[in-house]
Predict the structure.
Amino acid sequence: MRSRRPLLLACVLLATAGCGATQMEPNTAMTIPGTEPAAHQAMVPAESRVDFGREFRFPDGLTVLVSTPRTFQPSATAYPRCARAVAFEVNLLNDGKQPYRLSGFSASATVAGEPAKQVVDSAQGFTGIVDAGKDVEPGRNVRLTFAFAMPADPVELKMSVRPGPDSQASALYTGQA
């Protein structure tokens, strides 16, 4: 009977231990304060503000540098037709461990909260992303040029770049153009 006594005591302790417990909702996790999972500790803001001419590194290792805007007059063959546009050189450096698919990259601009139209002016070399199907191997970089239609007078310009359509992070470049 002695061998059953410790077993009986263990059963009683287990049965009574759950009496004061509260039931957790399914799929919830318990964490001890200060020991949150790494994913919560290193959360990336959805949008980071950056000045033109500065680098920004995305969590996947893609480093982006957007030049300061350069004003130019589009050629007669440019689309859409506009009197003034600004051009940017965008340098992408793949510091990640995997090839970066260039087709995932996007750049858009706004002026006074309104979307700016991207200018295609092949006579001056502004053709958008020509090699969209190209992979940028780790340690390599690629340069792209973008142009956007602008009003006649200088304005505050915001250019948003995102490494991929599923990326939660974006860099918002701001400045005068």
Q: What stands out?
A: The radius of gyration is 27 Å.
